[in-house]
Amino acid sequence: MQRTCALKRTLKSFKENDAGNVTIFSIFMIVLILTITGASVDIMRFEATRAKMQSSMDRAVLAAADLDQLQKPDVVVKDYMDKAGLGDAIASVNIKSGLASRTVEATGTASMKTLFLKMAGVDTMTAPAVSIAEEKISNVEVSLILDISGSMTRNGRMDKLKPAAQDFVNKVMTDESNGVTTLNLVPFAGQVNPGDILFDYFRGERPKIKQNNGFGNGDQDAPGNSLCNNNAENATDCDDATVTTTPAVPDYFPEWSGKLTNVVFYFDTDGDDIYNIAHKIEGFPDYASRDVDDFFRGFVAFAFAHDWRLTDPEQFLGVSIKGRGDKTRYFQVKDDQNGTESDIGPTRNSRYIPGATLQYSWIDYDYWAPSYVPPSRTPPAPVETAEDNAYTDTNVNMPSSCVEIYADEFANTELPKSSDYVPHFNYWGYDEETMDWGWCPSEDMAVQYYSADRQALVEFIGNMRMHDGTGLHYGMKYGLALLDPENQDEVSHLIANGLVDERFEGRPIAWGDPETEKFIVLMTDGDTTDQWRPTNPKDPRNGDTPLLAQHSSKSKLLSPRSENVAALLKQCDLAREKGVTVFTIAFETSDSGAADMQACASSPSHFFRVEGWAIDEAFDTIARQINNLRLIQ
């Protein structure tokens, strides 16, 4: 009984004594805090695992979806995940391939053992990941606008540009993109040459240039040393007794002051007086004549006998001569008006020319000369005005086909509408080894339209030659116009003339078409220059003497740099308004030139200012963006 009472007292005492309650509560709170805190640690670990899983899978499917990827997409995904330590996490890889497209979808889960949440009965957490990447090449129209101005010769810039631009073409013009991607290649110097087909389309006919160097105007003797032979203005006392006959074999060329280096013969087979064949003689021995009159007939007859494309004497246009002691000059033969004086015409004599290169010793000129049939030699037209006193109308071998573009035309995206042509001239100096004569680039440097021929574009870039001036606004004008659907008629004309594949009838595609992306890539190494023109575009000296080397009265300012930059930026604004993505590359240029390029680009991230071989990285980055690789989930 006593023991029972003692127990009751003990229990009652324990019941009534609250000492230690806080300790018990604290223990429960500590356990709860540890559980919650641990849970946050486990959740952070889970999120890190999930993020690693997702980012690794994103990279994996992006690499696998790349159309340039040569390995199987599922192998690429597995390889990426293995290197991230998540190879066992992949659940599935689904691949969908189509014409010019590839979609790769990957799913997976990664399990993670918990450290603290197991106290709450959660032993593991599972991190899921789903990634879908697609590279889809829709219709893509690219205008690649490249600077071929004379300054590109400095610091080997052209040597760096060519492989970079060629790599760009190879990356953009892939086998998968064939038929959906077209590229307009727009070389620009002082102006842009649209080529003779569009030049004729714009203007309707070739210009006539008054060119005579005084022949028949009373200031100079003409061939035959008789003013009477040429209807000269002051030949008033001529009669049958004093009239001499014009030599049956006229002279076309002067005797060169030094040994000849090479002679190029120009031929036209499509009747537009623009040469499309040029055969060259080089390797002149010391004994060779320095007067081309002594052997050119033999060579022309030889060329007609051995080149099946030459069928009519009227196809022979003229000759350019390069030799020691004088600059390279061109001399007209067909419709010649001025004898041995030089003419306006091409002086292309190095690197690629559209024809054969032969050694002087390979040909028996005396054997072939009797077979020579000369082209026409039109008599001088009557002189009509004092202004034209020194020149007469004649069709000459125009070496280029640039169309003037005036200020108001930069407010739209159309191709040029002017009927005026850009004269053939150089304003600044001339490096004969790396440049061809002309503010307007030669026919060989004309725009390449809507091409899907990767190899032809690569070869064209490899053969690019520099010319005078920097007309950025002209390059941008053509580049944007060739993306404007309003110019489809011009493309149809190019297709009809065999310059564009008929698959691309209907291009340029409409602005805003959801299946079409349009890009401009504009590259330059200099500032937009003033636009100069010869005061008299008919003066034959413009064909071999820079305007700066002539009297100041021989040149005039068509438009200043400030006006030309404004025209450039107006075209850049129009491009952005039309949804065209504009990339610009300022290559070893001035701060002002770089500022213009940055202002032209679609955004600061679309502008690249580079030096040296970094130009290759710029083109590579742009090519990858144009290829339109994107993550879609």
Automatic annotation (TrEMBL):
Name the source organism. Tropicibacter naphthalenivorans
Keyword Transmembrane listed: yes
> Per its UniProt entry, which superkingdom is the organism in?
Bacteria
UniProt keyword Transferase present = no
Q: Where is region (Disordered) located?
A: 210-231, 526-548
Q: Which keywords label this protein?
A: Membrane, Transmembrane, Transmembrane helix
Segments spanning the bilayer are 21-41
Q: What is this protein called?
A: Flp pilus assembly protein TadG
Question: What residue stretches are annotated with the Putative Flp pilus-assembly TadG-like N-terminal domain?
Answer: 20-65
